[in-house]
């Protein structure tokens, strides 16, 4: 049976996807495509800046140019709502992302990040990890057996990505360029075009290697789309320089004193730096290399991140919890002790109050516990500390069914009903109450599983399986044993509590 993080030890992370950046990145990509197509169609425009994270505003000198742009965007970009306005002598075209498209972008960012995180966890080689979404913008990651939290955080949360851009021409308008420092020398800068040729999302494979001088490099293989983009861009720009821009999103913890108390705040930081600026000698294909990296570990980590896939949007650690192996073993010992103690007390109670029928209940209860563990193993359910609490609760609920049946049998015997008829009436008339109570509890457990996360899910899984096995053992197994003992013969007395009950 798989053990949960609280029993096995490891690290638990709760990460939050930055949806604002996801929208901004998508808008920047769409803005670049639209402006490139406007230039190809020789439609003169100004602006193209992003406003309010959902809008692109383009300005034109005359209405005819705006109309041409309107038709181009309308025919090729159905994710936008278009609005034409006029301010003075400027003809404006506002492109606003529809609500459906905003939801699609956010959902894609979350699902893509889930896939990327799973790939990165696989690269770490962790056995039986847990990666699942929580709500609309959060992801839970549990890594059993991992104790190096710094390495895990660096690999999981690193929002490292690459952008390939051409160096800006000398006469390029400042609105169409950006200036970035070099990663190895912040004093050195270069102006790059805002238009992005390709990104790390187009990388199909990346391997750390060494160049002819023994310096670390990363060999890149692009996918078909990325290869076509690189080939088209470099074929038309031979002799110009192309930059590889490294982008990293991370958090910095700032400690300061407020009213005599130490307060820690986390600030989100975006770092962009050029790691390579080389002259295009010939048209590039889908394979090339990135040089200019500082060290072998940096090259290996960059290759890992690109190979596992780039995150669609930055993620930040909201919660972090580490459980050591010794604490996990203590939880196992405490959980087993609680199960054994609860199970033993129930066995003694049933034997003391119901004598022979109590022995029948104890046999069915033992079988119920075995069935519960077997079902969890077959279904590959994860046993957690709350799950052990669910087992203890199941033991009590399982014996509750037998108590209802036995009390009904005692009532029938007191009313003068023969033993065989009392047994039949006890199991038959108690069935409805037992079934109703268990189905109600099962529905609650299903809701807990659907709405909860982490420990709550572990408890709900155990409770669901336990209810089903309890109904089987309480109604079927105990009835079978009673029929085996008392069936097919004349019975005058039943051993069902206190003293023998006469017919």
From TrEMBL:
Please give the InterPro entries that the UniProt record associates with this protein.
Acrflvin-R (IPR001036), SecD (IPR005791), SecD/SecF_arch_bac (IPR022813), SecD/SecF_CS (IPR022646), SecD_1st (IPR048631), SecD_SecF_C (IPR048634), SecD_SecF_C_bact (IPR055344), SecDF_P1_head (IPR054384)
Give the main localization category: membrane
Similarity comment text for this entry: Belongs to the SecD/SecF family. SecD subfamily.
Cellular compartment(s): Cell membrane
Question: GO molecular function terms here?
Answer: protein-transporting ATPase activity
Name of the protein in question: Protein translocase subunit SecD
Domain SecDF P1 head subdomain residue range list: 179-313
A Pfam family name for this chain? Answer: SecDF_P1_head
Highest rank taxon of the organism:
Bacteria
Provide the membrane topology annotation: Multi-pass membrane protein
GO CC annotation, single? plasma membrane
Q: What UniProt keywords are attached to this protein's entry?
A: Cell membrane, Membrane, Protein transport, Translocation, Transmembrane, Transmembrane helix, Transport
Transmembrane domains' residue ranges? 334-352, 359-379, 385-406, 427-452, 458-486
* Residues annotated as domain Protein export membrane protein SecD/SecF C-terminal: 318-484
